[in-house]
Structures are given as C-alpha cells and as structure tokens.
Amino acid sequence: MGDAHFPLLRYIDPDSNTLFNGTQMYPVIEELDQLISSVEGEEKDVLISVRELAIYCRDHPQTYLRFIGD
To answer: Distance between CA atoms of 68 and 8, rounded to whole angstroms?
Structure first.
C-alpha cells in the first residue's frame, strides 16, 4: 500500500471509495498537517481544504470524510 508514515491516509484508494469516521479525524488531521508542511502551491491549497473538511467531521457527530476513486 501507500507510505507507512501515514497510517490512515495511506489507505486512500484512487480506484475505490475510502471513508473515514469522526473518531479517525484526529490522526487524519495530524497526517494532513504533515503533508501540508511538505508541499507547496495548488497541492497545499487542496490539502488545506481537505483538512478543513476533516475538522468539520471531527466536530460534527455522524459526519464522514469520503474520498471517491475512479
């Protein structure tokens, strides 16, 4: 699979759907912070937007962060 430095984000499958629940948002946000600090430009802007969605999911019960693959 993906990079072992990202225990949750490495399971995002570009060919399928990946779903994270509110409890998983704490480590997901930490992993996003690591990624944000390592990129620039448009990639950084996209990751910041995803992080904002993750914070929303963390703070609102029964919401999920879903990545939709091909």
So the answer is: 16
